[in-house]
Amino acid sequence: MSARRRFRNLIRIGPVQVGTAYDQRGREKHTAACTAPRCGFSSEYDSRSAAELAARTHRCPAR
After folding, report:
1. Which residues of the chain have pLDDT under 70?
2. What is the rounded distance in angstroms from the CA atom of residue 40 to the CA atom of residue 53?
3. CA separation for the pair 62, 17 (Å, rounded)
4. Bridge partners, residue 12, by sequence
5. Alpha-carbon distance 10 to 1, whole Å?
6. Residues 14-36 as b or e (16 or more Cβ within 10 Å = b)
């Protein structure tokens, strides 16, 4: 079971939300997750710019 994370600095780019949180080892991670139904895209990055780039270039296959 994964730990419940406290996200901060949330932004929304289209249907994708980008947030910052700390992982289980105390490192800062940036997550991009699509909120569209039946999409399922979610990925974790070391840098904020990489997460925002993924959010800008994401295309939902559910469309």
Report:
1. 1-3, 62-63
2. 18
3. 17
4. 17
5. 24
6. ebbbbbbbeeeeeeebbbbbbee
| Residue matched to tokens 């994964």 | 2
* CA–CA distances in Å: residue 21 to residues 17, 28, 35, 40, 60: 13, 6, 18, 20, 24
What is the distance between the alpha carbons of residues 1 and 13, in angstroms, rounded to a whole number?
28
In the chain, domain spans: 8-57
pLDDT at position 1 is: 43
Residue 46's identity, in one-letter code, is D
Who contacts 57 (Cβ-Cβ below 8 Å, separation ≥6)?
Answer: none
Q: Specify the DSSP element, H or E, that contains 8.
A: strand 8-13
Task: Name the one residue in this structure whose structure tokens are 């992982």.
Answer: 23
